[in-house]
Design goal:
Number of strands: 7
Order of helices and strands: HHEEEHEHHEHHEHHHHHHHHHE
Oligomer: single chain
Shape: elongated
Radius of gyration: 23 Å
Structural class: alpha+beta
Strand content: 5-15%
Bound molecules: fe (ii) ion
Largest sheet: 5 strands, antiparallel
Distance between the termini: 36 Å
Length: 399
């Protein structure tokens, strides 16, 4: 746990001071070196207490390890760093002074040359060669930076330009973290959901920003984003509280997390799965719930949804249970959104279904596969908001 918040605040403050001082003096001026070294000393103090500190800069929020730093809420550098693509800063090992100084120089160059376009395209981990300092975008943006479609778009027109690349990068980063560390970066996952929620409400009317799959190997990320958006839309449509809507958004985003443990050749197999392959595939439910619970007990709804999202209302589906149980409302809701997105997406073994056929399938499944209230609400939501579906495709940079 992080009892070193004071040291972390001292370090961040000194880093900001160093960057501010360095920007005032020309390269080679001794004042630049002095500021950088003073800041390095605070980093060394921090690393003595916490050898691998990590920070996320999300909008105006600063997250140190697993907790938000309150004393720095209005720290303008959080936004400045995030704007130049430094949304995540990790010190993987004890940092050498020269590596830290060149990191500061790099950040300073970005701040001076900042343009919105450049900032949106900085991937995670692009530091200066091999270094103990990793930094980059986790793709989470503050509300003011989310690019929305033209607000003059009429209800009948489909907004066609929607930039979800940052959210996609962030979801992919979350999956990588789970793979590498068996831990879900919860705060970052929540801010992706916040960012999606902003994209849904930024216009005067509700918008469902979905991704259209272009490459099969993007399915996991695309599907996670779409199910998150649809689950939040449906939860909101059904009148749930904003807190529940966000929790359902996180659950929708993480519902298939267990698939990080399923081999890729099974996930993308074009033909029928063998019984052994099926049982591995089905284990993503149990595996997902385990991964989520071991990362954070507070994600109990997301863990339940990961476990229950393939259980049918009549008790069928999987995982196998020894007794019939009523699923959590979030699971029945994510279940419908999951099936909708899966059928609407082209897969290696079949074409994408048309919207009307997909909704008809959901209607036919009422009472057997789907909960009646939830499925009816989903069909009504699509009837109302279908003109507000906004499909985006990934830019080549995000592919
Ligand atoms: Fe699933
Ligand atoms: Fe799914």
């Amino acid at each position: 746990m992080t009892d070193h918040t004071g040291l972390a605040i001292r370090f961040l403050t000194s880093m900001a001071q160093a960057l501010a001082t360095m920007s005032l003096y020309a390269e080679g001026h001794p004042a630049r070196a002095r500021a950088a070294v003073a800041s390095f000393d605070t980093l060394r103090d921090l690393q003595q207490a916490d050898p691998r500190p990590s920070f996320s800069f999300l909008g105006s929020e600063v997250i140190y390890g697993q907790q938000a730093i309150r004393g720095l809420t209005d720290w303008e550098w959080a936004t400045k760093l995030a704007n130049v693509g430094v949304q995540r800063l990790e010190f993987a090992d004890m940092v050498e002074r020269h590596a830290y100084v060149s990191f500061l120089e790099d950040v300073l160059a970005r701040v001076s040359a900042f343009t919105a376009v450049a900032a949106a395209n900085v991937p995670v981990g692009r530091g200066n060669g091999p270094t103990a300092i990793r930094f980059g975008a986790v793709g989470v943006r503050s509300a003011s930076e989310v690019r929305l479609p033209d607000s003059t778009v009429q209800a009948a027109e489909r907004p066609s330009i929607l930039d979800l690349n940052a959210e996609v990068d962030a979801i992919r980063w979350v999956h990588d973290e789970v793979n590498d560390r068996e831990e879900i970066p919860l705060l970052e996952a929540e801010s992706i959901v916040r960012s999606l929620s902003v994209a849904m409400h930024g216009d005067s009317q509700m918008l469902l920003p979905l991704l259209q799959l272009k490459e099969f190997d993007q399915y996991t990320t695309t599907h996670a984003l779409n199910v998150s958006v649809l689950s939040m839309g449906l939860a909101e449509f059904m009148g749930l509280s904003p807190r529940e809507v966000r929790a359902y958004g996180v659950a929708g985003m993480l519902h298939d997390l267990g698939k990080v443990r399923v081999p890729k050749d099974i996930l993308t197999k074009p033909g029928k799965l063998t019984p052994e392959e099926w049982s591995i595939m089905r284990s993503h439910t149990v595996e997902g719930a385990r991964l989520i619970l071991q990362s954070d007990q507070k994600l109990d709804v997301a863990a339940l949804v990961a476990f229950e999202h393939h259980i049918m209302i009549n008790g069928g589906g999987y995982p196998d249970r020894h007794f019939r149980c009523d699923c959590h409302k979030a699971s029945t809701l994510v279940h419908v959104c999951d099936v909708y997105d899966a059928l609407r997406t082209k897969r290696p073994y079949r074409d994408a279904w048309e919207p009307a056929a997909t909704l008809a399938y959901i209607e036919r499944g009422i009472g057997t596969e789907f909960d009646a209230d939830v499925a009816k609400a989903f069909i009504a939501m699509m009837g109302k908001w279908e003109p507000r579906l906004a499909y985006a495709s990934l830019s080549p940079a995000a592919a």
